[in-house]
Amino acid sequence: MFKKVLIANRGEIAVRIIRACRELGIHTVTVYSTADRSALHAKIADESICIGPAATKDSYLNAAAIIEACKMTGAEAVHPGFGFLSENADFAQLCEDNGIVFIGPKPRSISMLGDKAAAKSAMKAAGVPVIPGSDGAVPDMETAVKLSKEIGFPLMVKAAAGGGGRGIRLVERFEDLEDAITAAKQEAKNFFGDDSIYMEKFIVDPKHIEVQILADNFGNTVYLGERDCSMQRRNQKVLEETPSPIMTPELRHKMGRAAVTAARVCGYTNAGTIEFLVDSSRRFYFMEMNTRIQVEHPVTEAVTGIDLVKHQIMIANGDPLPFEQNDVELRGHSIECRVNAENPEMNFRPSPGQITSLHIPGGPGIRVDSSVYQGYTITPYYDSMIAKLIVHAPTREEAIAKMKWALAEFIVEGVDTNIDFQLSLIRDSVFEQGTYDIGYLTRKLSKGK
User: What Rg do the C-alpha atoms of the chain give, in angstroms?
Assistant: First the structure.
């Protein structure tokens, strides 16, 4: 097993990885920016190194500084967490070139799956259901016009190198096509440095269901159930649950096998998530694959009892998976709410500042992944998520009841949070019925309810 791992991230995921390493007897190194000197991940690791100023491009996205930190400390491997450099094929290759193990898939797989259009083409060739649309990137407006007539409206224009809801436009009329493509290309260029776009049919009111997989270096690939991520605002997930309220054993098996096929097509190893859209007739379509650990991975851990981060590390170390598909058993129901420092009453404006009082809920079946503490100052430089509240119970109804009380007991003072907003969602009758779709929250907020 690795003796020392560097964690190229911050916040709750860095703390989560530190704890997994401790259980495996691994010495940890964290990196931090000048704005994160007092951050928990910088305090509790065995070693910690400042790698630059607050701006992410000069610190957490500074690949050269992270590689140098590995060399200075003797770290044998890097865990990238999520966000930042976690899906950067060039960084994974840089680690490999310097004799450092990247705890994730190989650079080739990241590169292939990072191009959404290329990934879709590969899935189509492998027989994985895909949303009708362009085969690869759309080269020019003339081609886009021709394709739009074949696909039909409504349709989506998406950044080929996209993620996080960026570079996406819904086009409901032919007259809006050119403006939508221009806007999507500009946003894609600004955020990803690549203005390539592709087009696909817009599936009306779908569910967003993702399947977690683990794949070792010996050809063993398993799926670990699904997560329902349909409660979204502006293409950003707000809460997640597993199992999905619409799932049947037959559909789970079909989607799971499709996810395994998708991973094998790409020669994929380590943890990954295949995201699907599921329509009202329970037909599912490949959307994209995330080549990293997901924010919402704890709900899968709750129902399977499998520590995904520890298995990421063990797979990267060259260990085979210690279980097969038939060994995977789903028990109970789990829900995760993302607690953010933001004000829902002011269009979810971020709320940096000092946490003056903090009470974290506890009890059987309640887990809180966080890196904040009383007196900690939330800076304006990074993502506003301050904690993930996860509950697990024998049934969905019991999990909802547990989450209601856990949210009510979660107290953060000094900054605004979305806790009351999350509580309103958990109490929402459509959520309780499990009939919400990917557009439900947007419609709800637009009506001011």
Answer: 21
**Average pLDDT of adjacent 10-residue blocks, the chain of 449 residues:** 98 98 98 97 98 96 98 98 96 98 97 86 91 89 95 93 82 96 93 91 94 97 98 94 97 97 95 96 93 98 98 98 98 98 96 98 98 97 96 98 98 98 97 96 86
Catalytic residue among 169, 227, 292, 338: 292
Domain made up of 4-103: CATH architecture: 3-Layer(aba) Sandwich (3.40)
The CATH class of the 132-201 domain is alpha beta
pLDDT at position 120, please?
85
Indicate if 292 belongs to the active site: yes
Fold of 207-446: D-amino Acid Aminotransferase; Chain A, domain 1 (3.30.470)
